[in-house]
Amino acid sequence: MNSIPTTALGLAEHGLPVLPLLADKRPFGNCRACEGLACGGRPNMAAPGPCACPWPCHGWAAATTDPAVLTSPQWTAAWRRARTIGYHPGGAGVTVVDLDNPTAVDWARTTLPPTTTVATTRGQHWIYRGTMRSVNAVRAGVDIKSLMSYARWLAPGAGTLAELPDVVRALAEKKSTSVRPTPRAVTVPAPAGGGQCPHRSPAYLEQGIAMAEQRITGAASAIHTTVYRTFLAVLSAHGRCGCLTEAHIGRLFTAAQAKGESPRHCTTAWSNASKALGM
């Protein structure tokens, strides 16, 4: 018998927003109803909980403590395919310092205050009370997972939960101010549009662009693929009505270049996505 849904319900009862993860530790992808935010997303993407879609879509944002959602037919089907449980640390009021190798663990032992620790396949999770923005690769082998991110549930852990220390917050600030190549201006025109606008309000488009930026920024691997698929989703939802401006495209290109993509690759990915949609 699959114990994953039973464990997930138990965690939710204790206030941990959970979601199913696939064998490769990724969340379930968006269903057709949610591609390109066709469902409208959710009004507050900084908090856990599902959108109007009954499936576990939108990655970390699908995490929930609602037993009615967790035991619904759609989620029950997802739990059957799940191989592990994910959770939204920020929604639970905690921050996970993900230490991916023994060297990173040694660094934490000499730098960070003791707290609840959980063994992982290659290292440890150090969990602190308090939330902050999530940032990958704040130093070699160290990721910070809190708001707008997910972590894998492994075990309750050992040790007493400590308050989030300033040294961890400082790692995120240092990462954000590190020297990066200056992104170049967007080099493609906005789609001409002309079709009927499906947006319920300007906020719908703004939310879609913000989510696309976050999807690119939060990618830890397969950056090329993530950028292309994100461009494809944005164009699918917003490329035919004329609401998408060069300023919006520029934000996406800036996010992609901040992850190391070249302006040429951004332009190529955008062009290929446009062609795939017949634009």
What does this entry look like structurally?
The structure is a single chain. With 279 residues, this protein is an alpha+beta fold. Strand 4 and strand 5 (124-129) form a beta hairpin. Strands 3, 4, 5, 6, 7 and 9 form a 6-stranded mixed sheet that branches. It is globular. It has 9 helices and 9 strands.
Structure at a glance:
The chain has 279 residues and is of the alpha+beta class.
Rg measurement, Å: 20 Å
Residues in helix, %: 25-40%
Distance between the termini: 48 Å
Largest sheet: 6 strands, mixed
Q: Kindly state the mean pLDDT as a whole number? A: 83
Strand tally, please?
9
Low-confidence stretches: none
Judged by helices, strands and strand pairing, the structural class is alpha+beta
Order of helices and strands: HEHHEEHEEEEEEHHHHH
Number of helices: 9
Shape: globular
* Strand proportion: 5-15%
Descriptive terms for the model:
279 residues; alpha+beta; 6-stranded mixed β-sheet; 3-stranded antiparallel β-sheet; 9 helices; 9 strands; 37% helix; globular
Structural topology:
Blueprint: H1 4-13, E1 18-21, H2 67-70, H3 73-81, E2 84-87, E3 94-99, H4 102-111, E4 116-119, E5 124-129, E6 135-139, E7 142-145, E8 151-152, E9 162-163, H5 166-176, H6 202-217, H7 223-238, H8 246-258, H9 263-276
Parallel strand pairs: 5-9
Antiparallel strand pairs: 1-2, 2-8, 3-5, 3-7, 4-5, 6-7
